[in-house]
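hey all, quick one before standup. I had two proteins in the batch that finished overnight and I want to keep them in one place so we stop losing track of which output belongs to which input. First protein below, input sequence then C-alpha cells straight from the run.
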Amino acid sequence: MTIPHWKYARWGLAVVIALCGFWIGTHQAHSAMKTKADVETFVFNGPWYTDDFGAKEATPMTRAYTAVVGLLALSRQETLYYMAREDSDGEAMTADYVYEITGGDLPSRWWSITLYGDDHFLMDNEYEKFSVKATDLEREEDGTFRVVISREPQPGNWIPMAGEEGEEVSLLLRMYNPNDGVLDRLQDIDMPEIRRVRKAS
C-alpha cells in the first residue's frame, strides 16, 4: 500500500508544531529559572525555592521547568527539591567566585546538595565529584557543616567548581522522605546559607 505524499506532509507539519511548542515551553522555563519570575506556585526560603516538581497537580510551567532540570522528579512526599541560583545576598552565582554553604541537618531521612552548570547538567571536573551528602559530611562539634565550592581543592567538605568565566551556576538540594509536617512549612525550614567568599583564582 502506497501512502499519499500529503500524509507525509501532515506528519511533518505535526512534528514541526510539536517541536515549536516544546521549544517555547522550555524557553519560558529557562527564563523563569534564570530570573525566578513570578511563578505562582514557587515557594521561596532565602535564596532557595521549591515547587510541586513531579506532582500530578503541577502547573504547565512547572512541568516545563521539570522537563528542563529533572526528567525523573519525584513527588514532594518522596523527595523535596530546593533550587538556588543566587547566594544569600541576592547575587547570581557564577563560576567566577568561591562560595561557602553553611547550615545544619535538614528535616528528612537523607539529603544532598549538588552543583550544576548553566545548562542544568553536572559540571565536569577531574575529581568526578559533584555533590555532598548528609551521610558523608564532616561536621563541627555542634552538628553544623561548612561546604566550600571552589576551583582549588579544599580540606573537608568540598565541591569542585568548573565552568567558563561568567557562567551562571545553580545548586539543587534534595531532601528524601521529608519529616512529618515539613510540607506545611516550606518557607520556614532552616535552610543552608550560601555566601560568596572571594573571587576565584
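OK second protein, same deal, sequence then C-alpha cells:
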Amino acid sequence: MAWYEPDRMLIRARARSQLLRTALEEATAEAVRQERLRIARDLHDATSHAVGVMLLQVSAAEAQLRTDPQLALAALATAKQAGEQAKEASNPLLPGLGASDLPGVDTLRTELVALVQQWRACGMRVKATINPPLLVPPELAVTCYRVVQEALTNASRHAPGGEVEVRVLTHRRQFLVEVEDTGATKAVSSTSSGEMGLAGLRERVVANLGHFTAVSRGKGFRVTARFELPSSRSRS
C-alpha cells in the first residue's frame, strides 16, 4: 500500500485537475458568450435608435427640399448627428455603459428629455412625464434609458403618425418606466427590428430585479418596466 499510494494520489490529482480545467473552460466560454450578447444588445439599442432618426429626417428632407430648403438642411443636420451617434456606439473599443454614464437622477432626466426632444424634432407626437426617483443606481439608470429609447424607436417604426406617451416616475413604491403608443395612422414600414430589441430589454430589466411587459393595447402597444423601491426602514 505504501508503494502504490503515491501513484493513486497522482492519478486522483490528475483526474481532479482535468475536471477543474474542464469547468474553467466552460465558465470562460459562457463568459465570452454573455459578453458577446451584451455587446450585441448595446449595439442594437444604440444603432437602431440612430437609424430610425436618420430615416425619418432624410425622408423629411426629401419632402422639403424644394419647398423649404432651410428645413431640409436642418433635417439633414439632425440625420448627420444621429449617424455620428451610431458610429460612436458601434466602436468596439469604447467602454460599455456603466457608472460614468447617467450617474444620477439629474443626468438621467436630462438624457431622457433630450431623447424625447430628438424624436419630437422628427415629427413624433410625444407626451412625457419624466420624474425619476431621487436615488437611481447607475445600472438601473442605463436600463431605464434603454427601455425608453427602444420603445420610442419601435413606435416610430410600427406606429407612425400615432401619439406616444412616456412615463418615468415613482408609483406605489415602484419605479415605473412606461411607453405607450396609440397605434399607426400612416403606412407602416415593412422593415422589421428583429427579436433582439424587446428580448434585450427583458433581459436588462430582469437583471435589475424588475418586471417587464410588452403588450398590445387596442391598436397601440405598451412597454412597461417596474422596479421595486427600497422600503423605508423603521426607526428604533
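Flagging for whoever picks this up: Residues 5-64 form the longest helix (60 residues). The chain is about 55% helix and 15% strand.
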